Amino acid sequence: MADRSSKTDTQAQLQKMQRAEDGKKAMAEYEAEGAAMRAKTEKLRALRLAKEAADAAAAPKAAPKKAGRKTKTKAAPLSDWLKDRETGGRNS
Q1: Over the range 25-53, which residues count as b (16 or more CB within 10 Å of their CB) and which as e?
Q2: What is the pLDDT of residues 24-82, one digit of tens each?
């Protein structure tokens, strides 16, 4: 019986070590994928910023708009609106 127990203990320890190694490998792969993703993102960001800068330099300059005051149209009196409602619309 003691012989069997030591075999199962040894097997359990071996399995535990294998799981630990698998975990380390999985974590290393995960970190490598993250680093690759960050590098790719940084490269694409640099390309985008360079393109935006080139587009901004190539774009024609727009003439500055005058900062004048806009004129509002004068609203019609309420009495005109009421007359229009009486002669047209749903009430006719």
Answers
A1: eeeeeeeeeeeeeeeeeeeeeeeeeeeee
A2: 999 999 999 999 999 999 999 999 999 999 999 888 776 667 766 666 778 888 888 88
What are the structural domain ranges in the chain?
A: 1-59
**Contacts of residue 85, Cβ cutoff 8 Å, sequence gap at least 6:** 91
CA angle 78, 84, 85 (to 5 degrees): 90
Indicate the pTM of the whole model.
0.48
Is residue 38 a contact partner of residue 44, using CB atoms and an 8 Å limit?
no
C-alpha distances (whole Å) from 15 to each of 6, 7, 9, 43 are: 14, 12, 10, 42
